[in-house]
Queue: 2 jobs
Job 1
Amino acid sequence: MVSVLVDNIGELVTNDAQHGDGAPLGLLRDAALMVEGDRVAWVGERRFAPAADTHVDVAGAAVIPGFVDSHAHLVFAGDRAQEFAARMEGRAYSAGGIQTTVAATRASSDEMLAGNVARLVAEMQRQGTTTVEIKSGYGLTVSDEARSLAVAAQFTDETTYLGAHVVAPEYADDPAAYIDLVTGPMLDAVRPYARWIDVFCERGAFDADQARAILAAGAAAGLHARIHANQLGHGPGIGVACEIGAASADHCTFTTPDDLDNLAQSGVVATLLPGVEFSTRSPYPDARAMIAAGVTVALATDCNPGSCYTSSMPLCVALAVREMRMAPAEALWSATAGGAKALRREDIGRLEVGLRADFSVLAAPSYVHLAYRPGVPLMHAVYRGGQPIA
Ligand code: NIG
Ligand code: FE
């Protein structure tokens, strides 16, 4: 196997606390990273680097693990720019806009849907994302959810069935019948393509009992749970996530101290999506209180045409730092190792021997620049499984 030494790294973020001063980022200065095949083969100070077949000299740049974007809704058609413009003029965000995208998605061909996902995934990769979770949820019929997940599975292993995004328009008068569909024939149809099941547990979408029933059906079919929780108001979503042992409760915009204790005790990851608060002018989640309570925090984009149409993890890092008062180190950890925890992945999110060689070389001397230089394209090169992808 050919070995490649990425050499002359000014600052290497490993997320392996055995390096550096023991802090979670595991920072190394004047470092090198050896890749063999798709794996990390060696990490350390460059003066101790082993011999390698080829060298890539990054001239003192910072190197960080690839971003793990653990929450994105990429299978859709059309956009909702007019809804965004109206919101910026004072209209509130509501879950109702989802139906606009459902209609456009149903009217779209498989090829158009796949083309849109390909465009967004390429956009993400250029911004340093090496793993993305992709949800369905804009089909809401058996065939449209199944084809949404079949499209998603062309791009990632982290596919999530979100038939329980909102009640499909045809079932507006009979939500119980829609839940029977979601937990029955629709679940059967998506099962070959889905790893996760998600539910939007919120007023206007699904309540706690409905969410429990949907996630239990998913679990019986072998799908692991994650939840849209406490996005638009205080609600039962986080409680349900903790009770059933979901991998992650996502949004967590409105929380009580009990919610935070519950998350910390149960080990459910809180996935914060600050691009949503930015794009809907909502209050930001209380990341400081979560961290103080011992909650594991992840950061993700929530890329979708309604509440947040950004594909940029660097933007989310910058927002987390500026608006949620996360330290730059905390935000970067949450956007990489935190995302891996939210997806229960042990092989990504850190740069350690044996893990997948997913990393970005920054056009900057320090990871701090991700927040310090908001909006600036700082990815010099992005590698996934040891191969340059952007
Ligand atoms: O995560 N909360 C529910 N779903 C998306 C928004 C979907 C949309 O508005 O199209 C979210 O914010
Ligand atoms: Fe979402």
Note: The chain has a mean pLDDT of 97.
Job 2
Amino acid sequence: MAPKVLVSDKLSDTAVQIFRDRGIDVDFRPDLGKDKAALAEVIDQYDGLAIRSATKVTAKLLDRATNLKVIGRAGIGTDNVDKDAASKKGVIVMNTPFGNMITTAEHAIAMMFAVARQIPEASASTHAGKWEKSRFMGVELTGKTLGVIGAGNIGGIVCDRARALKMKVMAYDPFLSEEKADQMGVQKVELDTLFAHADFLTLHVPYTEQTANILSRENIAKLKPGVRVINCARGGLVDEEALAEALKSGHVAGAAFDVFETEPATDSPLFNLPNVVVTPHLGAATTEAQENVALQVAEQMSDYLLTGA
Ligand code: MLT
């Protein structure tokens, strides 16, 4: 019998087509990602579950998933999957670490420009028929220091693009060797050095026990006055309340956030502050990236289900 896969989040048609072409019986039910009860009702029918970020794979859901062998996350972060519970049940969790890295890095760079030049506020004001030419004074990126926390796949691309913009780049990343940092043209530093020097600070680490609240109230107090903070990585890396206070006091000059402690974020201490640019977790939202991750997740899951590889 052909293995059965459920796609429970919005995923490009490419994924569905690949599963079919590989002889896998696939159900495309993006409505189930947000309907825990309905998903729990049907999950026992499937060998594979393909998701993005809306579906929450909890221990409770896994208890009902009696036939499940593989969970494929079309994207990078697997923080919506209880990986301990999955591994206890022998369910493989796979992601697609490369498919959306360029897109996410580009979003971080776009957010850096947006906050440096206050583009969203200037755009809203111009749309409103005001012509507030003197209100929106920006800063250049050239010659400024960018502090990158996490110089892996996405952070590494951000470093490369920032160097092309003639920024000085400092990176904090315990996994980055001095040799690799030299090749990348970045200065490997400790966190406190990065905090003291960065004019712009961008985060590119997953949310883990080690990185949770890495930009804590205490660390925000160490930031260089006038810094602009960009987070296109994960909510929970930054103390939003403390950052909002630092923005209000003027210690932090701006922030650009794509991710929030609670998502979907309908409220945040950062909302409605001047020079705070916010987007609804759009880091991976390009047609190219979504095609890439859909294709990769479908190929990987098919390989695993059909050959065990
Ligand atoms: C990811 O982890 O791949 C990104 O945050 C994108 C997403 O969750 O949609």
Note: The chain has a mean pLDDT of 97.
